[in-house]
TrEMBL record:
This is tRNA (guanine(10)-N(2))-methyltransferase. It is found in: Cytoplasm. Residues 211-335 form the Ribosomal RNA large subunit methyltransferase K/L-like methyltransferase domain. Keywords: Cytoplasm, Methyltransferase, RNA-binding, S-adenosyl-L-methionine, Transferase, tRNA processing, tRNA-binding. InterPro entries: DNA_methylase_N6_adenine_CS, RlmKL-like_Mtase, SAM-dependent_MTases_sf, TRMT11, TRMT11_N. Residues 22-201 form the tRNA (guanine(10)-N(2))-methyltransferase TRMT11 N-terminal domain. Its EC number is 2.1.1.214. The lineage of its organism: Eukaryota, Viridiplantae, Chlorophyta, core chlorophytes, Chlorophyceae. Belongs to the class I-like SAM-binding methyltransferase superfamily. TRM11 methyltransferase family.
Amino acid sequence: MVRLVPNAGADLAEDAPSTSGKEYLTYFAHRLLEFRRPELESVAQTVGCTEEQLQWRAPAGDVEHSPFWYLTLPSDEAAVEISRRMILTKMLVEVWAEGEDWEELKAAFEAFPEDRKSIWLRPDLTFRVVVESFGSSLPMDEQLDIIKRLEFIPFKGSVRLRDPQVRFVLLRCDCGDHGSLIDATVSPRLYFGRVVGTSNRGVIEAYSLTRRRYLGPTSMDTEMAFVMCNHAGVRRGSLVLDPYAGTGSILVAAAHYGARVMGADIDIKIICEGKIGKGGERLTIYSNFEQYGLPAPVGLIRMDAHRHPIRPDLSEIFHAIIGDPPYGVRAGGRKSGLPKAEMAQRLLIRDRDTYIPSTQPYTLGECLRDLLDLSARLLVVGGRLVYFLPATPGTYDEADIPQHPALKLVANSEQILTSRYSRRLITMEKVQPYDVATATAYYAARPDLTMAIDRLHDIVYDQLPVLPTAEAAATTAAVGADCDGSATSVVKPRRRCRGKNL
């Protein structure tokens, strides 16, 4: 696990900021807050950094959701490589000075080692200074006034607004009582430093779903698809599988990073038939790859993890498995096979060219057990499984996250969707080879596949009681029972959902 040290009250002998120029200020985008640090850690390891080389230092005031965290990296070269993959981080900055006001900022700049400043303040280097504000807007005239206040910095080169050799930034955090939508607990602060790398969020616009040729109602949004690939450590030459490919949004993002991709889905119409476009042409997953000039998938198969066609002797062939399992809000889970009541009426297959296999309901608990077991078999050691787990305030318990003896939980990041439910991006890493006996014994000790979240559709759309959590149960016990001796039931009040019941 990457080390985290506090900011306030740190032991200087052990937790002081790096003095080697290897600590960088990470200026995060203020969205998907729980995804940001795990994404940056994964990207750092993807480009070759080890966990021992990474260390987080908490922001000023130790506010968890602050966008200004500090990260120790091996070198500027590593920071530049990381910045090319960042989605939720705006920039990495070598901080020369910071403070609560301009006096502190100036004093900190003067105390910064002269030899580390002078190599970037040479007269033969072109430069540019940009100003960014977090928590409040800054009109252009105010930005120019702030730049003028940096007169204590001895800039010597020529100003070049486009493609300068050195970029400096003045970051202002101002979340005070002036109508800001950002939590005012983020401390007011000024930061000045050299920009080492900026993010490549332009890929989100380049791959926007609004212009995607082949889409479905549950296509993964572009930003999240790239974030999932970063969590999975997708890189050039990786072999990536999406077991719930749909229209291929995750596969497109993985292919952008140079991976060879393979998709599977239980719906043969999505995988093979596609749909007819406005011009009368047939659109399929391959159409999306053609649109972006990406190599076509190495294969698309009709498959579900419950009865997959992959030979038992095949193992450790994928570097990443990334998917969004069906969890029953917009599309219920299905698995291959006939319900028991219909097994006796099963008819012989007369035409295999037109035959569509029967399916039956697939609970989330069973689906995730199959997904983890398949991943434990097929991932290389060190490969990652990344998938979404639905959650609701009344049912989520971290202890209920599915586990496997060959997989280790790396990250668990929540994305709030509505007041009724959210989803958590689960990132797991294969830490040991798959062993049949160990996996069989592990499952035998846990025969119950039922998960509270299996009732997700009812919880979201119906006025049904939520199963009591441990906290609610304790509260009930403290209050006591009703007059008739029965325990008080815990019911979470819910609003009707405005969306359609799909």
